[in-house]
# Entry
Amino acid sequence: MVNINALLFDLDGVLVSTETNHYLAWKAIAQELGVPFTEHDNESLKGISRADSLKKILGKGGLTISNEEFDRLMTKKNNYYLASIAEINQSKLLPGVKELLILAKERRIKMAVGSSSKNAKFILEKLNIQQYFDAVIDGNDVQIPKPNPEVFLKGASALNSLPIECIVFEDAQSGVEAALAGNFNVIGVGNPALKNVVTHYLNDLTEFSIDNYAQLIRN
Ligand code: BG6
Ligand code: MG
# Structure
């Protein structure tokens, strides 16, 4: 029997409610480009890097732009995003997060964040939850973003765990693909679009029981 000894969390949409902030910032950029952009379109941007997100929007509009313009739009999007989360605090933590972090820490279960965001460490500090994590791997630490498994493989390695000893919590299709590609156990959280993609789905982390977790994954 494999012993689950570590929890790996995606950040946006799993620990903290920031996905709407990302969506609205991209919507403003898409508007500037004259590309229609809906919440449905945004679904395929969840979990992927900033550059890959802009490429998808450009692709949707059939647009080609210079490298300078590309960089300008990435910076602009990030400025919109950062302005919208300037006041972020623990009230934006998703249900069950704080309780799970406290309990897992008490039980000495290793924990890491595996996020595509280059703002992850900044946000964790703003939320004042960075102390719960033994490692934080984010968009600055990987060569190949999700759906490549690199971010989670680096997280597992930092925790000295094997992928099969870890549970990855993800709200995005790209993140689920990354976890599965890395041979991790994965639980989809808080995104009904994942219900058909994952074996284990939770509406939020209040539904996760540490006492049942090994069982949950084996079944
Ligand atoms: C992911 C989000 O966590 O990070 C995406 O799900 C976001 O929506 C991506 O685009 C990159 O984030 P950032 O903060 O580096 O622009
Ligand atoms: Mg996410």
About this structure: Strands lie at 6-9, 110-114, 135-137, 166-170, 185-189, 200-202. The longest strand covers residues 110-114. The pocket of 6-O-phosphono-beta-D-glucopyranose (ligand 1) is lined by residues 11-13, 22, 45-47, 49-50, 53, 78, 115-119, 139, 172 (CB under 6 Å).
